[in-house]
Write a structure and sequence with these properties.
The chain is mainly alpha-helical. The protein folds into 2 domains: 127 residues, no CATH class; 39 residues, no CATH class. Helices cover 64% and strands 0% of the residues.
Length: 182
Amino acid sequence: MEDRDRRGPAYPLYERVLKELNTLNWTQEQFKAHSGVARSTIAKWRYQPRSPQASTVKAVAQALGIPEGEALRLAGIPDGRIPDAPLDEIGDFVATAHDVVSTLRERAMESGQSLGEVLVESGLARPEELTVPESLPVDPIVAELEAATDISPETKAELIRLHLANRARRFEEERRKRKPGA
């Protein structure tokens, strides 16, 4: 049997951890001091037939600066589910979900991206999984202008065009403020 046939579900995380450890140039003792996880545990992820414990993945992710959601996905824990995990593990995972989403929102704000863009960039979602609502909320100013009976249709159209152009300009200015290096 070839090596790739024997790889466990956490093999992608195993590779990522090795890369991060190499980058940090940490010894086994330094890694254990930062994560509380023995390097031998990480070595098991190469061929272990089941996903590792979520708490172990989280500790490693935190120590190495890997986003938790990404680490869990790389560990073979898809869609935020913890396969065959004890109930206390699932409770811990659900309790941190809010923190993970908050972190992703912060990353989106800092980079001037949408939350959806960050999810796709992090590998937590595919573009086809994200949906756009059937209709956008009604703009109250546009609705008021459209309902006005004392303004000609040409004037209404021009006022709506100016309003939307101004709104787009303000949105772009705000986006640039949030995007680093813009």
